[in-house]
Amino acid sequence: MGTGNYEILRLLGKGGMAEVFRVKANAGRYKGRELAMKKLLPALRKDEEAVRLFTAEAELSRHLSHPNIVQTLEVGSDADDIYIVMELIDGRDVAQIIKRCRQKKVPWPIDFALYLSRALLDALDYAHHAKGPNGKPLGIVHCDVSPSNFFVSRTGELVLGDFGVARSLIEVGPDQVMGKPFYLSPEAVSGHLDASIDLWAVAVTLYELLTLQRPFVGKNSQEVFAAIRASNYIPIRAIRPEVPPIIEGLVARAFDIDRAMRFESAREFADEIAPLYDERVGTPLAISAVVRGLFGTSD
User: Fold this and answer.
1) Could you tell me which of 236, 228, 218 has the C-alpha nearest to residue 256?
2) Which residues, 6 or more positions from 220, have their beta carbon under 8 angstroms from its beta carbon?
3) Are 184 and 197 in contact (CB under 8 A)?
4) How far apart are CA 110 and CA 93, in angstroms?
5) What DSSP string runs through the chain?
6) All domains of the chain in start order, with CATH
7) Is the pLDDT of residue 79 over 80?
8) β-strand partners of 72
9) pLDDT at residue 265, as a whole number
10) Which of the four pLDDT bands, split at 50, 70 and 90, describes residue 175?
11) Contact 147, 98 (CB under 8 A)
12) What distance in Å separates the CA atoms of residue 216 and residue 203, rounded to the nearest whole number?
């Protein structure tokens, strides 16, 4: 359709490579619908590497269709613009939820933490096994799983977004550390890329949901990386004693220094979580209701 068929309503966010706008479609199959449009920053439109990465994100995201992944609706270029149009998730990201819980000194319900983590793992299981139009595996690794990239909508949708640094399984150099430092696995810190780095990041996210604090901290990135490599963190029950030992053990396994001792896949991790929460309590609608209570209906 081209960007001219969309009316920009407001800026939703801006990162190092792109900015995301709330837009309204004025023509085409989505006419009248409010959507999200991600555009490469104007300053980077002549940067070959930036264009390559943004184009790669667009190419990967257009092949993904899953209830727990933000749906890409259109990918294109128009004059000097390169853009991705996605469904608009009207809600909050998990980082905002954790921050609000800290501010209000309200613990996030354990069943909700487990449900969110399982939904995130379901999304990753799909992405890790996704295939292209030719039927060949894409080998996608998200590389930037974190609370700020997982969203809870007002209607109960739980979706993973931002495949901006996602990669197919390619070899990367030792200096190519991707993602946010607090969520990197020991392997990612060393520059090794495989699906296990996404599972580690899910475990970090689950830890944060349960404790409202990060497991691996330091005064600078090198101290954070040292804590990650040593798996040096405060056990969950030392912070929140009501968390069952089996859940603390689950996270401890996900944080094991020995890669062979951790979960082999997102599916295995999700299946271990499944029996640990009450499905009558941990539901999307219940979670969205609590989020509305935390932020207010108009906040």
Assistant:
1) 228
2) none
3) yes
4) 18
5) --GGGEEEEEEEEE-SSEEEEEEEE-SSTTTT-EEEEEEE-GGGTT-HHHHHHHHHHHHHHTT---TTBPPEEEEEEETTEEEEEEE---EEEHHHHHHHHHHHT-PPPHHHHHHHHHHHHHHHHHHHH-B-TTS-B---B-S--SGGGEEEETTS-EEE---TT-B-S----TT---S-GGG--HHHHTT--STHHHHHHHHHHHHHHHHSS-SS--SSHHHHHHHHHHT----HHHH-TTS-HHHHHHHHHHT-SSGGGS-SSHHHHHHHHGGGS-TTTS-HHHHHHHHHHHH-S--
6) 3-87 (3.30.200.20), 91-295 (1.10.510.10)
7) no
8) 86
9) 97
10) very low
11) yes
12) 12
Query: pTM (2 decimals)?
Result: 0.89
For residues 193 and 190, what is the distance between their CA atoms, to the nearest angstrom?
A: 9
Cite the active site residues.
Answer: 144
- How far from 218 is each of 175, 201, 214, 268, 298, CA to CA, in Å? 20, 17, 10, 31, 36
Which of 149, 94, 265, 115 is closest to 196 using CA atoms? 265
